[in-house]
Specification:
Number of helices: 9
Shape: globular
Distance between the termini: 41 Å
Largest sheet: none
Strand content: under 5%
Number of strands: 0
């Protein structure tokens, strides 16, 4: 059970949130991002590099220089600096897409939402520790729910699967004792509210 919980935590790491979301939208709602079918995996790889690899490398660097004691960031105070740096990085990337790189306006808005989720997690972390795994899963659900209205049923099963995965991931975080029930609950609610509200305002 411990191995399964750790695997779930790694596979659905919060920094992979944008990559998975882009893949889901490209595969199940291709008209949303308008990425050519032959370029979907290349584009997802590019997204993974800028939203996962670079921030993860930054975390590894902080660990190497002793700025954080562990990559698991179990203590609230250890999360503040990494979260701040990731927020700044995501904000710069989002601005770059809006001002310099022409991909798709909907993708730009998704990046804005991802940046907002990271920023919210950072602000909350100054006062209270929450589960960012739960926040990411809640954010995904919040983003997908409004899209179901215009997706002609294409996202129903995907959304249901994300609900199930969210339950598994949150259970894994509790089983590993990485978070309390309150931290998991607040993380999920924060993600859901930001994701859903952001979609309503931006789209």
């Amino acid at each position: 059970m411990t191995i399964a919980s750790r695997l779930l935590s790694y596979i659905f790491h919060p920094l992979l949130f944008v990559t998975y979301l882009v893949l889901m939208l490209c595969l199940f709602m291709p008209t949303f991002l308008l990425i050519p079918s032959g370029s979907v995996w290349k584009f997802a790889g590019f997204v993974a590099i800028i939203t996962f690899i670079f921030p993860a490398a930054n975390l590894a660097m902080l660990k190497a220089f002793g700025s954080i004691p562990s990559l698991e960031l179990r203590e609230r105070k250890d999360r503040i600096l990494p979260f701040l740096m990731i927020t700044i990085f995501y904000a710069v990337v989002s601005a770059m897409f809006f001002l310099k790189v022409s991909v798709n306006v909907n993708f730009n808005k998704i990046m804005m939402l991802a940046t907002t989720l990271v920023a919210v997690a950072t602000v909350i972390t100054f006062f209270f520790k929450i589960s960012v795994h739960s926040l990411a899963m809640g954010g995904a659900i919040g983003i997908l729910l409004p899209l179901n209205k215009v997706a002609d049923g294409k996202l129903i099963f995907v959304t249901a699967a994300i609900f199930a995965l969210a339950g598994l991931v949150m259970s894994a975080r509790l089983y590993l004792q990485a978070h309390t029930q309150r931290e998991v609950f607040y993380g999920a609610i924060a993600g859901l509210v930001v994701g859903f509200t952001g979609m309503i305002l931006l789209f």
